Here is the input.
Amino acid sequence: MFDWSNAQNGSLIGTIGIISALLQGGYVRRSISKVGEGRMARRGIFICSIGFALLSLLAKFASNGTEAGQDTAKKLLWASAVCFAFTSSTVVNSLTAAASLLCDDDATGTSEVLAKGKALGKFRSSGQLGRALGPIIG
Here is the structure.
């Protein structure tokens, strides 16, 4: 849409990663104990919906054909990237933390650490399976 080079695409993706890392370490880690895992995940999902709304407006401005329209479309893209970075830093971490709090000893008498590890492994594996199958089904 913007005929960007690899460097420009990499800059956008790299910025998402850096913002996500800063938010995860600076905001999520400090505030999740005060806010709670479920509420933090809901915040991330809400911001994700804002990011998708911004992306839906992007095509309207990019197809405008004017320089101002292209600039607005690029700003919308960057704003949606920041929203997705926030989502990336909050949702997965919050849901994993919530899942770990719900883990218990299993019926076989395995230690709590092993039971949590197995439960979290299944939880994360299911998420990755959904990430792989989602686009195929979609």
